[in-house]
Structures are given as structure tokens and as C-alpha cells.
């Protein structure tokens, strides 16, 4: 172990030069020998070999075999402005040459962080005048947990500690993030959730709304929050957290009545409202923030992903006046922060990314033009024999694969989970140059916001082709 082998040095320098030709097998072998991936079964990975991504341009990726892939998931819900934006790499390069790093602890700051904070305040709803930066969305939600508890201590209500979240929510992978989230698979590993976090049902009409209209169900699902607050005692509840549209849980789009009723309940009981906009922010739903679309006034907004389009890691919390004023006026030191809070390079990337979103009017485009077009084209997939229902909001969409269609969504007959139909379909997508994610038998997309109408047509064509292949496979 004194020196790396010549072959390893050669493969590393090949990566550094970004050559077009890669030895896929050798990379896969090194990958499975040494790289522990997030959310991955490593025995399966070793058997199949990882797909090695090497390049991106616009909405397309290329793998190490030279295969072109349409990225229907924007990387991981984040590459909002698409791949290959040289102006972002140039902004990053310039910042690295000028000041690659300095921290924001102990009364120091840096120029990109100041400018970005001011710009985010400008873009966000009026109750926001402060920003706390983190390195990721998970750290943003950890920050939320600490901030809301500190807020209630300073308000003289230290017993208001409990945060209410929802089953099947995703709020990150740190201990607080995964506890705030409601993913059973995550809670089953390592004694989660930590105390002081409880979960109510998600507003999933298809799963739980039988016998009700969507509007009736929205009110009923919001009522679960009120019931939980009354069960715990309002004087014990610090905050409610939710994604405007649940992303990783399977693109669960709530009925229109849901969020306004949640807001009413939070107001009535004085409970803080946290909108986790790690996915929904920065144009994903056709608004700068999904909260605006849902008609709510959150006290805190978590952001990450789209703030830099994933080019460099950055996350944070928009801190509303209700919380910020108390922390600032009464709080003294808030003993919380990260080495990379307000990282100048990440903030420079975010500034350029937001300039692109503004200059190219991408948020308006999703709201007024490509979003409605995607809605119409995606809905047309519902005529496919495998599709029970298909819905979308801005640039997120999902469809459910069903064994038998029904007259109403609740009458569709599901496949047996052990058939793994979603994974079969995902396999056909991958094999045919299309990235679409499977959450059980729900197939979801969140394409880059730069996707054109012609590219939407291309994507819908690929999805239909792969649905046909899946159907043929099952027969
Ligand atoms: N919150 C939501 C809604 C997310 O979708 C994610 C990531 O997918 C996170 C938080 C965690 O963000 P990160 O992976 O940057 O920690």
C-alpha cells in the first residue's frame, strides 16, 4: 500500500483528462471493490455492474459505453438547468481562483454567500428575509429541527418539542433527516425515528381516498394533523413538516384542499409550518417555490438540489421573520453550523444557476408552456393497457402500472408486489436510453426544466415503447 499500481494511476489520469474511451469492466470492478454507494444492495451491484456515467449535455447523458440516455429524473431531481452549462463551470472556476474557501463562523462572510442570501430573499415569499446555508438538504432539515426547538425555548415554551411529519415522506438521510422522513425501510435500520418526531398519513388519494371526492379527501387528510395535535396536546407540538408535493415517496400530488387546511390548522394551534422544498423549489412545479402554488405561508423552507442544479452541493433554510426575529433578538449565539455553510464556490454556482433560470425564463416556461404540455402528453399515456392513472404537477409526473384498469382509480387492480413490475419496467427504460424511476409500481419523472416540447414528445414516445415492452414481458 506504499504506492498505487500503475494501472490505477493510469485509470485515474484517464478520468482526469475526461477521455471519451473508458474501460467499463475495469471501472465496474474497482467500483464494486471499493465504492460503497448510497441506497444500494452491493451484492446486486457486484453481479450486474454499475452503469458508469461520463458526460452530460442538456437533457441527455452518455455512459462509458457511449450510449445516449434521456435523463427523465434530472440526475436526482436536481439538474434543473440541464447538463453542460459552461457559464456555471466558469463561475465556479473564477471563484476557486479568487477565494476557494472561507468559513462564515465567527463574524466573517464572503461575497457570493452575501449576494446569494440577498437574491434568495428577493425570490422567496415576503415573510422571508434570512437564509441559513448548509451543504445539503438533509443538513437543512437538521437545521430546521434545531431551529424550531430553539425558537420555542426562547418563546418560553421548551416543552413544544415534537415535530409532526408524514409516512412515506423523504427528508434526507442524516439521523434527523431520516427520522423526520417517514420511510419504513429507513426506520427499520438503526433505531429510527429518534424521539420527538411522529408521523401521520400522507395525502395519497389513490391509496386512501376511496368513497370520497379528491376535495373531501384533502380535508380529511389534513384533519389527521389536527387529530394528532389534539392527541399530543398543542403545547407539545413545535412544527409540522411536509413537501408541497412528495417526491421520493412517488410524486404524491395532494388534492387542492389539503394545504390550505393544513395552514389553517397550523395557524389555529400556533404550530410552525416547515415546507421541505428540496425538490419543489427553483421552478420544479412551475413556481419559484411550491408553497406559493399550494397557497401556504411556511415559517421555514428547506432548499437544496435546484439551487445549484446539482453542479456543486449546497442546501439551506429560508428562515421566516417569525422565527428569525426571535432567534436574532433573543437568541444570542445559535450553536449550530457547518464548515461548508455559505461555501463561496457553491454560492457562486448558485448565483449563476439562478441567473440562467431568470434569463431563460425557465420557471415561467414550466408554468405556462412546457408544464401544461407535459401534463397533456403524460396524461395521454393513461390509454395504455398497463396504466391505471397518470398525473403531473409542473415538471414532476407519475403513472401507476396496474394489472387491471377500473372505472375509477380505486377500482384498479394492482400487481402483486413480488412480481416487481415497476422494476421490470425501469429495466426496459434503462435499456432503451430513458431514465424513469420506479417507486413500487409507480413510475415517476422529474425532467430538467430546459426540456422542450419536441423533447417531451421524444420522452413520451420512449415511455410508451417501454410500457409496450413491459406488457409483452408480462404476457
Ligand atoms: N428533502 C427532500 C424532499 C428530498 O427529496 C431530499 C433528497 O432527495 C432531501 C431532503 C435530502 O437532501 P440531500 O440528499 O441533499 O441531503
Helix content: 40-55%
Strand-residue proportion? 15-25%
Shape field: globular
The protein's oligomeric status is single chain
What is the first-to-last residue Cα distance? 54 Å
Q: Would you tell me the structural class of the helices and strands?
A: alpha/beta
Number of strands: 15
The major β-sheet equals: 7 strands, mixed
- With strands numbered from the N-terminus, the spatial order across the biggest sheet is 4-10-9-8-7-5-6
The small-molecule ligands in this entry are: pyridoxal-5'-phosphate
Radius of gyration: 23 Å
Count of discrete alpha- or pi-helical segments spanning 4 or more residues: 19
Output mean pLDDT. 96
Cofactor: pyridoxal 5'-phosphate
GO cellular component, one term: cytosol
InterPro entries: Aminotrans_3, Aminotrans_3_PPA_site, PyrdxlP-dep_Trfase, PyrdxlP-dep_Trfase_major, PyrdxlP-dep_Trfase_small
Organism: Massilia glaciei
Q: Helices and strands in order, then pairings?
A:
Elements: H1 6-17, H2 24-34, H3 42-48, E1 53-57, E2 60-63, E3 68-71, H4 74-77, H5 86-98, H6 111-123, E4 128-134, H7 137-154, E5 162-166, H8 175-180, H9 184-187, E6 197-200, H10 205-208, H11 214-232, E7 237-242, H12 258-269, E8 272-276, H13 290-294, E9 300-303, E10 315-320, H14 321-330, H15 344-359, H16 362-368, H17 370-379, E11 387-393, E12 396-401, H18 421-431, E13 434-435, E14 437-439, E15 442-445, H19 453-474
Parallel strand pairs: 3-13, 5-6, 5-7, 7-8, 8-9
Antiparallel strand pairs: 1-2, 2-3, 4-10, 9-10, 11-12, 12-15, 14-15
Bound molecules: pyridoxal-5'-phosphate.
